[in-house]
Amino acid sequence: MSDEQQRRFDQRIASETAIEPQDWMPDAYRKTLIRQIGQHAHSEVVGMLPEGNWLTRAPSLRRKAILLAKVQDEAGHGLYLYSAAETLGCAREDLYQKLLDNQMKYSSIFNYPTLTWADVPVIGWLVDGAAIVNQVALCRTSYGPYARAMVKICKEESFHQRQGYEACTVLANGSDAQRQMLQDAINRFWWPALMMFGPGDDNSPNSARSLAWKIKLHTNDELRQRFVDNTVPQVELLGMTVPDADLYFDEATGHYRFGEINWDEFNQVIAGQGICNEERLAAKRQAWEAGAWVREAALAWSAKQAAPDAA
Ligand code: ACO
Fold first, then answer.
1. By C-alpha distance, which of 192, 190, 188, 185 is closest to 171?
2. Distance 36 CA to ligand 1 centre (A)
3. What SUPFAM superfamilies is this protein classified in (predicted)?
4. What is the predicted pLDDT for the residue at 311?
5. 40 CB within 6 A, ligand 1
6. Quick one: pLDDT at residue 264?
7. Rg, Å, the chain Cα set
8. What contacts 184, CB < 8 A, 6 or more positions away?
9. What pLDDT, on the 0 to 100 scale, is given for residue 86?
10. Which of 14, 109, 175, 249 falls between 20 and 30 A from 143, CA-CA?
11. Which pLDDT does position 310 carry in this prediction?
C-alpha cells in the first residue's frame, strides 16, 4: 500500500464517491465488507425458510401467489448480494460453505418458528419493515456494488412490507380468533425484530470502523429507534398492542422510549442456540446436497457449450 493509494481512498470516502471493485482499498475494509455482505446474503436465503413453511398452507390462492413471489424475491436478493461479495475477490461457494459449516452468521430473526398463518403477515410487516429501515440507509453505503444492490432490494422489500401490513389489516378486521392470532404473532416477533438491528451502540465492536468507512451510515441504536418510531403507530392503527410495558411517547424528544431488550436471548441466538438454528442449517445442508445433480448438470452443459463439436 502506498501513501498515495491510502490518501485517494480516504478522499473518496470523505467525498462520498463510491469505492468500486477495481479501486485500491484497505484489506480490513475489504474483509469487513465480505463479512457484512456475506452475512446479509445468507440472511436472505435462510430467510426463505420460515415463510416457505406456509407456502402450501396459505389461506387463499391470492395469498399463496403473493407469498410465493415474496419468497422468490428473497432468493433473488441472496443472488445479488453473493454477486456483490464476489466483486471483492471471494468465491460464492466459499461463503456458502462457511454458512453450512456454521462459520458465518445470518440474521438472528430467522431462528424463530412460524407457528400460525398470522406469522406470515407479521414477518412481512415487521421483519421486512425492519430490514428496509436498515437497507434504505445502505443504499448510500460506500461500496458501489453493495449500494446498487440495495436500491433494487429496497423496492422489493417495500412491496413485502406493504403486503404484510395489508394482510394484517384483514386479520385485525376479522373474527376474535383472527385478532388474537395476530396479537400473538406481534407478541412473538416484536422483540426479535428489534434485535435485528444488532447489539446496542456500547456493545457493537464493528460500528466505529464501519461508520468511519461509511459502510454504515447510522448506528444500530439510531436505526432501531427509527423503526420503533415508524412502527408503533402502525400497531395502534391495527387496534393491537406492543408487548412492552415500558413503552411510551416522549413528548420532549418526539420519540418512543422502549424497554430493555433481552440481550441474553440475542446472544444465545447468534451463538447458534436459538429455537430453530439447527433446523435452519439442516434444511440448507439438505438442499445443498439434494441440489448436487443440478450443479453437475449445469457444469456438463457449460462444458458442452464451450466445445460444441466434441460430442
Ligand atoms: N443477527 C445475527 N448477527 C448479528 C445481528 C443479528 N441481528 N446483529 C449483529 N450481529 C453480529 C454481527 O454480524 C457481528 O458479528 P461478527 O463480528 O462475528 O461478524 C456481531 O453481531 C457484533 O455486531 P456489530 O458490531 O453491531 O456488527 P455490524 O457492524 O456488522 O452491524 C448489522 C450489524 C447492523 C446487522 C450490519 O451487519 C448490517 O447492517 N448488515 C446488513 C443488513 C443485514 O444483514 N440484514 C439481514 C436481515 S434483513 C433480511 O435479510 C431480510
1. 185
2. 7
3. Ferritin-like
4. 54
5. yes
6. 98
7. 21
8. 116, 118
9. 98
10. 109
11. 59
Q: What distance in Å separates the CA atoms of residue 186 and residue 121, rounded to the nearest whole number?
A: 10
Residue reference for cell 413485502: 160
For 279, other C-beta atoms within 10 Å of its C-beta total 13
Q: Is 32 in the pocket of ligand 1 (CB under 6 A)?
A: no
Cα-to-centroid distance, 178 and ligand 1 (Å): 33
Considering only CA atoms, which residue is closest to atom 5 of ligand 1?
198
pLDDT value of residue 307: 87
Give residue 282 CA to ligand 1 midpoint distance, Å. 22
Q: What is the pTM for the complete model shown?
A: 0.96
Distance CA 99, CA 97 (A): 5
Instruction: Name the residue at shortest CA distance from atom 24 of ligand 1.
Output: 204
The residue extents of the domains of the chain are 3-306
Q: Is the ipTM of this complex over 0.90?
A: yes
Classify domain 3-306 at the CATH topology level: Ferritin (1.20.1260)
- 67 ligand 1 Cβ < 6 A: no
Q: Mean pLDDT, 10 residues at a time, over the chain (311 residues)? A: 91 97 98 98 98 96 97 97 98 97 97 98 98 97 98 95 98 98 98 98 98 98 98 98 98 98 98 97 97 96 85 54
Question: Which residues lie closer than 8 Å to 280 by C-beta, 6 or more apart?
Answer: 46, 49, 106, 110, 111
Q: How far apart are CA 22 and CA 19, in angstroms?
A: 8
Contact 25, 19 (CB under 8 A): yes
